[in-house]
Amino acid sequence: MSETGDNGVIFHMFQRAAAPVAPFSHAVECDGWVQLTGQMPTDPDDADAPLPDGIEAQTHRVMQNLVIVLQELGLDLSHVLSCRIFLTRFERDYAQMNAVYETYFPADRRPARTTVGVTALAVGALVEIDMIAKR
Question: What's the pTM?
Fold first, then answer.
């Protein structure tokens, strides 16, 4: 479901995507720019399922959830310009998260990126990633 505001901003919500853990749109779009809300490592088919164990499995799930949102928009990872990554255990998980993350992008086509250590994330997640894409 998409709703267009008076200023041409489009607010996207998708049935296939993971259920929101807070009040937000899965993506917001304006003039071909698309901001994807940070995704959690939740199962898009079962919001009550336990989170995957460990940073590698959670990073894969988050990236897969982002890919679902991109697909619903008619986009893919090649449209991604920037990512922000949030880690609750930065020093422990940074290298392992990077090992998974880098498998999603060709070495010569990686988005700009910021990674930040945080004290906590929704649903007890170890990682959250958001994206900016361009049509």
Answer: 0.94
